Give the backbone structure.
Amino acid sequence: MSHFLKHINSPKELRLLDQKELPQLAQELRDFIINIVATKEGHLGASLGVVELTIALHYVFNTPEDQLIWDVGHQAYGHKILTGRKELFHTNRQVGGLSGFPKRDESVYDAFGVGHASTSISAALGMAIASKLKGDLEKQHIAVIGDASIAGGMAFEGLNHAGVTNANLLVILNDNAIGIDPSVGALKQYLTNVKKGIQRKNNIIKALNIDYSGPIDGHDINKVISELKRLKTIKGPKFLHIITTKGKGLKQAEEDQVKYHAPGKFDASTGDIISKTPSEFTKYQDVFGYTIVELAKQNKNIVGITPAMPTGSSLKYMMDDMPDRAFDVGIAEQHAVTLAAGMATQGLIPFCNIYSTFLQRAYDQIIHDVALQKLPVIFCLDRAGLVGEDGATHHGVFDLSYLRCIPNLIIFSPRNEVELRNIMYTAQLGLQQPMAIRYPRGTGVTVDWKQPFSKIEIGKGVQLKKGRKLAVLSTGTIAKNVSDAIEKSEHPDSIAHYDMRFIKPLDEVLLHTILKTFETVITIEDNSIKGGFGSAVLEFAAANNYKNNIKLLGIPDVFIEHGSVTELQKSIGLDVESLAKYFELFL
C-alpha cells in the first residue's frame, strides 16, 4: 500500500497525485488525524467529516493564491496537515505549538483567523471584492461553512450582500446537521427537506441571486472535484451544498457526534474514550445546570436561553426536564439577548447563558435592549477567564471591562459553587435590573456544594482572612490561588484577603475600611487589567483622594495564546507560586 501523505508537505505535492490515488490519501489523512488527536486531544469529528472536501479544495484550487476560509475552524486539521504543518501537528493546542484554529500568522494558507462562528462569508466576500478592485479577476475565494454556522445572522448578512455583487465567491455549505450540538431552527428543517428532495421549489439561496448547486455527497471525492472544477469556471457568487457525516471514518464518532466533537483522549484503534479519574468536584456549568432546574421547579416564571451551547452550558438538563421553558436559539447571540429582553418585559425571569467571548457578539443588545430599559435579564457567563487550549479567540478575559461601563447592570463573580447557586437564587427573587454572573470553565472547589439556598446582599463583599500589613482583593474563582498563595507565603498572618465578589456595585463601605487600614493593596482578577476590577478600585481610590500603593494583577494587555490554564497562569504570574513571591515583596 502506498503512503502518499508522508510525501505531501504542501498542496503542490498533492496536485501531482493522480485523481484515482486521492481516496487512499483520504484514508491516510483520516488515520493521521485520529492517531494524533487520540493522544493529544482536540476537536475530532468536524475534521474527519471534511477530509474529502479538504483534499478536493487544495487539489482543484491554487491555494494559497486562491483563498480558502474555514468557518470557526474546528474542521481545519486536515487543511493544516496538508499545508506544511504535518510534522508540527502533534503540538496542536499546546503552549508554543500550533493553534487549534486557522491563524494568519501561522501559515500563508490560513487566509483568515477564525474561532467564532458565521464569519467566513463576510471575510471571503471582502477578499473577493478587494481582488476585483485590484483587477485580479481569476482569483478564487472559498468559504466553507457548516449548517449550524450558516444559521447565524452574520452569515445571512454576508449572503445578502454577496447576492448583489459580481464577486468571485464560492460558499460551500458543509451540511452534517450538527454543530457542537445538533443544529436547530427552521433553516435546519429546510436543509433537511432539500436533502430529502422534498424542497425543490423556492430555493432560499437562489432567491438571494446566488448560483446554487447540490446537494452532493461530500464523501464522493470524484464528485466533489468535478463540481469544484465546474464552479471554478462560473463567475459571480456561487453556493455548493454538500452532505457529510461528522466523525466520518470512526464508528463511535459517527454514532455519538456530540461526545466526539472534542472527545479528549481515546483509543485510536477502537475509538473508545479513555476514561479519566472522575473529579470529586463538579463543573461550574453543571452547578448552573442543576441549579436552574431546581429553581425553575419552584418559580414558574424562570426560563433558560442558550445560543447553540446546551451541552457546553449544561442548559440541556432544563431542556430535557422542561423543554417548553428552555430554548436553544442556534448560533444567534444577539437574538438570544433581545429574546430574553422581550421575555423580561412580560414578567418572565430569563437566565441567558452565553460564553463570555460569545456575549461580546451581542454588546449593543446588552446596552440598548436590556440595560437601557432596566430589564431584569440574568446573564450567566460561562467560560469566563482563561479557558486553556482553545486560546485567544475563546479566553473570556474582557467581560468585566466591557460590562463594567454599562449603567444599571449588576456584575457578580462567585468564588465557588455555593456562591454561584446563591446568586442564581438571589437573582430570581424579584430583581429590578439586569445582572451578569461570570464563572470559569472546569470544576469547582467544593464537594458538598448543594446546600440550602441563602440570599446574597447585593453589593456586599466579604473578608476571607484577617491580616495586619497587606490587603489582597480578589474577585471570582482566582480566590483559590490567592488563598493558597497566602498560606505558602512566609508571613501569612500579615496578609488580609477580601473577596470583592460584586464588581458593580462595588462594596464602597468595605473599600473605605480597607484603604484606611492598609497602605498597600493588591487587586487580583482573571480579566484584563485594562478597565477591569482593579481599574474600578483605582477609580474609587482616586475619586476619594486615597494615596495608597495599589497594585493590579490580572491579564496583561496582550492576547494570551493557547495552553493549559495552569501553564498560562504561570506565564502571567497568577499561579500560586508567583503570587506567593509577589506578596512577599510588600511584607
